[in-house]
Amino acid sequence: MKMLMFGSGFTHPKKRRGRMLGLAALCAALCALTSGCAQMKKNIEVHGVKFQKAKIDELGFVIGYLDSDTTIAGRPCKKGWVHVYPNGDLSGFTAARDIVLSRFVIPSNTWVFQNRDGIVTKCAFPRDTEVQGYVCRGSSLGSEGVQTAFYPDGALKQFYTRKPVRIDGISCKTSLFQPGIELYENGRLRSATLGAELERQGRVYRKNERIQLAPD
Q1: How far apart are CA 82 and CA 75, in angstroms?
Q2: What are phi and psi of 19, to 5 degrees?
Q3: pTM for the whole thing?
Q4: Which of 6, 174, 198, 204 has the largest CB neighbor count within 10 A?
Q5: Domain-by-domain residue ranges, the chain?
Q6: Terminus-to-terminus CA distance in the chain, angstroms?
């Protein structure tokens, strides 16, 4: 078995000290960019909501932990972490129960993303969920899970599936390493990875090729 050698293993003390200082500076920078090193306050009330613990950045954005299910800005939030905009509207939360919207129903335990106007923009479903005729892929990873996107009026915008689906006569498939299936607001196909070979307007597109369609 061949051994790969990466130097002698000896580092001059001055160089070692310089590297340690550089590493410390890098860690400090990372802490400044992430929430892990921010000051957390316990038993604090913000925007009329009582948090077991919360931190507020210089812009007023809140990341707080609820010790029980709580309704915030009209949304049923499950016990746990929630993100709140400076205006008091929710940025992200886990639904404590089903939320019925005009175009679809958000199942309980879904991590929900909203814009500053309180409009749902994305959902990370806890399981595969049917939305407007398509089974959108879910996962158990909460806010880090597979995301389904929506237009402001609630129309499906982008989603992932486990099996190929046909949209406008075209076989579409998804991969977690590529953008999902994208729809126009009227429900027509906008962009997708082909699940089968396609001949269109005199051109042949191969399976697994990404296509982009113009709006009608």
Answers
A1: 11
A2: -65, -40
A3: 0.78
A4: 174
A5: 39-97, 102-216
A6: 62
